[in-house]
Amino acid sequence: MTETFFISENEPRSKPAKRRVLFVDDDQEVLDGLKTTLLGMRAGWEMTFTATAKDALRKLDEREFDVIVTDLHMPDMNGFDLLTEVLRRHPGTVRIVLSATVREDLGIRSSNAAHQYLAKPCDAATLRTALNTASRIRELLLSPKLRSVISRITSLPSLPSVHAKLVESLANPEISSRELGEIIAQDVGMTAKVLQIANSAYFGLYRYIASPAEAAVYLGVDTIRALTMSAGVFSSFQHSGLPGVFIGQLQRHSMTTGMVAQAISVAEGLPKKTSDGSLVGGLLHDVGKLILAASWPKEYADVLAATSQEGVCSFDMEEQVFGATHADIGAYLLWLWGLPDAICNAVVFHHKPAECSDKAFTAAGAIHVADALERERSFSTDSGQRVELDMNYLTALGLADRVPEWRQICNRYAERAEA
Ligand SMILES: [Fe+2]
Ligand SMILES: [Fe+2]
């Protein structure tokens, strides 16, 4: 079995007294405004302010910062160049742009320098949420090396057949963004990326776009073409070290889990927003596996082999080898990319729904059930791939007797996917 290569350098589990954030803006009034806006967060954050990009880089070299928030237009260096340098020198730092003019400046490639975009003027609640989230996700991954690798990820590889279908469709001048959205919705990596981009502040939206289909319509055919054609944004999965069926199985399982989770949410009368979130969260719930497979194909192939041959639990094996599970890793990236809490929480807790702070049955619960039932159906033998339904959790919610109906829903969708 492969060596454990992250755990040795893990940080201690105890949280430091304060996180550090660096604000960069050449407009002193903006810096003063931020100081006032964030006054109430001084207990949890050490805040540093500077007016130049060069000074920001100096400060980052002197001590570690958890987050950098930067303007785009500065006389000595623009914000994208600054963040590109931060990515190179300090990849583990969360990179946020705060600008009034992001949209006009943002090319698809330069967008990769930042994790998130906030529009100026930014209200206090949005800023606080961004900083609090950055602090919370840091607890998910204790290894600085793991954090820095994931923080560098700007896109995720796609199922080759879906990628080919997208490229082929783009050759058709009559293609609509809605049709492209339907293709994108069949792929975990492309879905995560279009949601990140569509919800960036440069599109000036004040509501959250929750589905890949809606995101595609919003982005339009030209932007999707740019994403597909610009190297490294939408790309086909190519790692040969993994079993040939791995990526196809993962995509099929993810799509079925999303549809089943949505159907279960509808059957339980949950609000539309929750059932929509169940669909997208279900599609993305195992995105951490895609990250592991794309970033460490050899090590992850060993994990998969041990899981199927020795019958050990893949969750435990991931923890042992990477120091984190695919649930933690996937949620970390989605949080970095600014996806909403409901989806990220569903991803973190999909194997352990009882640990979710939300005690009602929501998207996290529906995704847990859909994932477990879909796996139960696909892996009828007692292998490590199986995910147990958490019956204690369902009993506590008074939902244990709903399982037979949910199982029927799952069978219906799985049969449809296999047809
Ligand atoms: Fe999972
Ligand atoms: Fe799963």
Radius of gyration: 21 Å
Which architecture of the largest domain would the CATH scheme give at its second level? Answer: Orthogonal Bundle
What do we call the CATH topology of the largest domain?
A: Hypothetical protein af1432
Major sheet strand order: 2-1-3-4-5
Q: What are the bound molecules?
A: fe (ii) ion
Strand content: 5-15%
Number of helices: 20
Order of helices and strands: EHEHEHEHEHHEHHHHEHHHHHHHHHH
| Overall number of domains | 3
- First-to-last CA distance: 37 Å
Number of strands: 7
Low-pLDDT ranges: none
Please describe the biggest sheet, giving its number of strands, its sense, and whether it closes into a barrel: 5 strands, parallel
Shape: globular
